[in-house]
Specification:
The complex is a heterodimer of chains A (417) and B (91).
Chain A: H1 6-14, E1 32-38, H2 42-55, E2 60-63, E3 79-80, H3 87-101, H4 103-107, E4 118-122, H5 125-140, E5 146-149, H6 151-157, E6 172-176, E7 180-181, H7 184-197, E8 201-203, E9 208-213, E10 219-224, E11 227-236, H8 242-249, E12 256-265, E13 275-278, E14 284-287, E15 293-303, H9 311-324, E16 333-343, E17 350-353, E18 359-363, H10 373-386, H11 400-403, H12 409-413
Parallel strand pairs in A: 1-2, 1-11, 2-8, 4-13, 11-18
Antiparallel strand pairs in A: 3-7, 4-6, 5-6, 9-10, 10-11, 12-15, 12-16, 13-14, 14-15, 17-18
Chain B: E1 3-6, E2 10-13, E3 18-22, H1 34-41, E4 50-56, E5 64-70, E6 76-80
Classes of the chains: A alpha/beta (417), B mainly beta (91).
């Protein structure tokens, strides 16, 4: 029976809400599991959920150093879209978008997916030429709901946009209609909840400090803050801390950890009903259900493990916002924060087996991890349960950096996304 | 905002600089294997803490130099020339 229904809400309302149970149990770790997932963010929790849901593997522990939803899953700008260029990326991000569309009912947890549409604008003739090439290719490759927009359509979609800036003139743009925003915490909580009810142990405050190796040099367990835990397969879903996990296991990864910032303004009445992205400045804006304008931009330009952003990037984001939305320029920024993202050389993720036996990798998402959570979990769960990579995940194996089969989205887009 | 001591211009604002990534990578022999080339081109140490990096004063004297920087505090611990080994404390 479903745990959350309208009838249940009425029933609990009539008895002072005393019947609700915690979203997940707080269980001490056992000493052995079939699968141990390192990292209780979206990708780790989704991997555990799909192992249990799709493959019947319920002896799974998710180990989180801090708290569920305290890392990048709770630090992004909540945008989900699939406007990618290469066929491998299209397959991956379209799968993710489709899974997001039905995730609330699959998890019996409202993730508040609002498919409000993405509007991307170009500031020069060169932006427009690039955009036309990309939109044509995306349409041919099956990205849903992508088309070019002219200036009058953009003015209708983004009424507060400044068309008179001499510095950032607006030439046109494109849209992806099924893109939108999701309540990011609800993704972490929903997966943790659903995985827990299928028998997965979600364990917080449990930092992994080292690995256990068998006689042949494969990994068969982890040393944690709460004792040693053994497992048949270990999965690393550690985002910005992925190379620290790899260091403990004795291999290197082609990743650099960088800080990615976001900002939210004081809440106002509805002024923007789409996800807005300016290609030239990297600025993206959406309005949360609470009314705050959520702003994001480019990466900080040097390696960082600090969960705070640098000032020059903050200035660039806020400056572009003030220029493009002058009527909103005097809004105060309430909060600013950063997440540590793991950037791969081709800005595409790494999914699959690690160089050390017994360990699997889900990392390298860079700026695009949140939108890929359902796909990342589904694909790696398939690999662990069946022993073979999923056809969609196969091109994203670590080996591509030696073979040269890179999937270089950044070269096409001119941004890290 | 970081204040970075360019060895040629003195302390300047971080806006004038660009980070060139990990320092002291040695280019392999042209005939080296694909794995060795992949390590040189793509694999990085990505330390949490003390890192040795190349920086360029791109909006100043345009000269390259090496810096030792902490990736958690962002403190710049040492600055030294491109063609020399890092200071002993950070080697």
């Amino acid at each position: 029976m479903k745990e959350y229904t309208g009838w249940r809400l009425i029933r609990e309302g009539l008895r002072d809400h005393r019947g609700w149970k915690p979203l997940w149990r707080s269980s001490p770790p056992k000493t052995r599991y079939e699968v141990i997932v390192i990292g209780g963010g979206g990708h780790g929790l989704a991997t555990a959920y799909y192992l249990a849901r799709n493959h019947g593997v319920t002896s799974v522990a998710v180990l989180e150093r801090g708290w569920i939803g305290g890392g990048n899953t709770g630090r992004n700008t909540t945008i989900v879209r699939s406007n990618y260029y290469y066929p491998q990326s299209v397959a991956l991000f379209e799968l993710s978008l489709k899974l997001y569309e039905t995730l609330s009912s699959a998890l019996n947890f409202n993730i508040m997916f609002s498919q409000r549409g993405l509007v991307v604008i170009g500031h020069s003739r060169h932006d427009m030429e690039q955009m036309q090439r990309r939109v044509g290719t995306m349409r041919a490759r099956g990205v849903r709901g992508v088309r070019m927009l002219d200036k009058s359509e953009i003015a209708g979609r983004v009424p507060r946009l400044n068309f008179d800036s001499p510095h950032l003139p607006i030439w046109g743009g494109f849209t992806q209609e099924p893109a939108g925003t999701v309540r990011h915490d609800a993704v972490a909580w929903g997966y943790a909840h659903a995985a827990d009810r299928l028998g997965v142990d979600v364990i917080q405050n449990c930092e992994v400090r080292g690995f256990k190796f068998d006689a042949q040099g494969g990994i068969n367990g982890v040393e944690t803050a709460r004792g040693d835990i053994y497992g048949g397969a270990i999965v690393s879903c550690a985002a910005g801390a992925s190379t620290l996990i790899a260091d403990m296991a004795g291999f290197d990864l082609p990743l650099t950890s960088c800080a990615l910032q976001a900002f939210v303004t004081e809440p106002v009445k509805p002024v923007l009903d789409c996800v807005f992205w300016s290609l030239g400045t990297g600025l993206y804006v959406s309005q949360s259900d609470k009314g705050g304008l959520v702003l994001g931009g480019g990466l900080d330009r040097y390696a960082s493990y600090a969960q705070r952003g640098s000032f020059p990037v903050a200035e660039a984001v806020v400056g572009a916002f003030a220029e493009l939305f002058p009527s909103l320029a005097r809004l105060r920024v309430l909060r600013q924060w950063a997440g540590v993202v793991d950037l791969s050389p081709d800005t595409s993720p790494i999914l699959g087996a690690a160089p050390v036996r017994g360990l699997y990798l889900n990392c390298g998402w860079g700026l695009g991890g949140f939108k890929a959570i359902p796909a990342g979990g589904t694909l790696l769960a398939h690999h662990i349960a069946t022993g073979k990579p999923h056809p969609i995940a196969e091109p994203f194996a670590l080996q591509r950096f030696a073979t040269g089969a890179l999937i270089d989205e950044s070269a096409v887009i001119g941004a890290e996304h | 905002m970081l204040l970075i001591a360019c060895p040629f211009c003195g302390p300047r604002d971080e806006l004038e600089f660009r980070c060139g990534g990990e320092a002291h990578l040695v280019r392999p022999d042209p005939g080296a294997s694909e794995e060795i080339w992949a390590r040189y081109l793509f694999y990085r140490s990505n330390p949490r803490g003390v890192a040795r990096e190349r920086w360029v004063h791109s909006r100043g004297c345009r000269q390259w130099f090496n810096a030792v920087r902490d990736t958690v505090t962002h403190e710049i611990l040492a600055v030294y020339a491109m063609d020399v080994s890092p200071p002993e404390a950070f080697s």
